[in-house]
Write a structure and sequence with these properties.
single chain; alpha+beta; 6-stranded mixed sheet; 16 helices
Length: 420
Amino acid sequence: MSVNLHTLPNGVRVVTEAMPGIDSATIGLWVEAGGRHERAEENGIAHFLEHMAFKGTERRSALRIAEEIEDVGGYINAYTSRETTAYYARVLKDDVALALDVVADIVLNPLFDEAEIEIERGVILQEIGQALDTPDDIIFDWLQEAAFPDQPMGRTILGPEERVSAFRREDFRRFVGAHYGPDRLILAAAGGIDHDAIVRQAEDLLGHLAPRASVPPEPARFAPRERRELKALEQVHFALGFEGPGYRDEAFFAAQVYAQALGGGMSSRLFQEAREKRGLCYSIFAQAGAYADTGLITVYAGTSAEDIAGLAELTVDEMRRAAADLTEAEVARARAQMKAGLLMGLESPTARAERLARMLAIWGRVPSVAETVARIEAVTRAEVTGFAERLAQAGQAALALYGPGERAPALARLTERLAA
């Protein structure tokens, strides 16, 4: 498998990876514009815009968009994150040109029909309501807000109901005009593809786009707080957040290994201590998320009102202990899990295409899988325990809590216990 990169004169980047023996392909447009590119009054518009792309263009109705892809047995989808909006389709290799034509059409030529805006507004309001009714979903939005308050990085992707209820056609056009310039478009494809054919089609479909100035997003500022929403639920949902490294930080891989060893699987410290040995919870995990300029180490658990105090204290105790006695075997296991997760995930053309776009956005190039694996394997125990110690001693954490959490310790008490 080989990666090929071509940049059109107007700045659109085309990156592909042929996967011999694969009869399908994923092709899409990744736009370097997401939730953190919104102004406060625009919160939720990037996600709403993603929905509107499927509601019709000058050439295709909403039904026709779906039919053209599904008539050939493929599927089309999209998602919005804090830094990216992606539109992609997976089809058989003989239908790649069709898929690219459809994807480019919905991204570049959405109608923003007023009637369709109203219909989709209702859909998104239902989506917001569903999220609010899902405690182990909304808790992460609240943690993000507590970690990065009063700034784009801390706002929800879906946006608040009052903003979503107010968006009009001109708002979508304004956001597209400000953030969908060719320098922010990455066309990525993987699987049964022909790089040269895709470049030629990209030139026809995207080459006419005029370059435009891009406004960088507001830098993230970790200014942690706590948010407690007491409610008579069956469980208390508890999430702690610590500032982590961004994608380009030297500590990125050490942070990933740390989170894996702490709470990334059934053999991890948190799972073994909190669930297997003490029965304090059903679900508990740790993860390391990263952005261009910051990151967030998250620990989540759901437990009973009676056990929340013990679980919260156990969590920070295990974090403190990891800084002192994490073993070589635990680090090796975490590295192996990360390596296997990466390699197994990349057996899918969709995962390959997504990786191409993500790496190109972060690094301006696509590191080989072997290079990434080598970076994982090079992480030492000393680097992981050093990261764990710095995290413990920083004395800063965000907390989100939802449910019958009256007995939960104060955040200040938890951070003091962690740093002790």
